[in-house]
Amino acid sequence: MPSTVETIRRRKKLNEAAAAGVVDPQVFEDALKKEQETRALEREEALKRKRKAKAPSLTDRLKEVKKALQSFKLYN
Questions:
Q1: CA distance to 52, 59, 60, 68, 75, per residue, from 63 (Å)
Q2: Do 1 and 38 contact (CB within 8 A), yes or no?
Q3: Cβ distance 69 to 61 under 8 Å?
Q4: What confidence tens digit (pLDDT) does each residue in 20-68 have?
């Protein structure tokens, strides 16, 4: 996963090359679009990892429910 600094440097080089006429404008646009799609996918993956880290596992949740039921039975 490229860092933000690497992305900025890459874009700057592409901009300079496009301004100098070295890179075809269509190639430049395609590269930017591909980079945006890649960044969007990376954001989605990061969000999924974050959600997964927050969510308790099903077995842990089941253990909590069992403990709660046992304590309820003790006091009833």
A1: 19, 6, 5, 9, 19
A2: no
A3: no
A4: 777 677 877 788 788 888 889 999 999 988 887 777 778 888 999 999 8
Planar angle of CA 26, 5, 10, nearest 5 degrees: 25
Which residue is it, tokens 């039975």? 73
Could you tell me if 57 and 51 are in contact, meaning their C-beta atoms sit under 8 angstroms apart? no
Give the three-state DSSP class for 46: helix
CB contact at 8 A, 15 and 27: no
- Name residues whose C-beta falls within 8 Å of residue 11's C-beta, 6 or more positions apart in sequence: 32, 35
pTM over 0.70: no
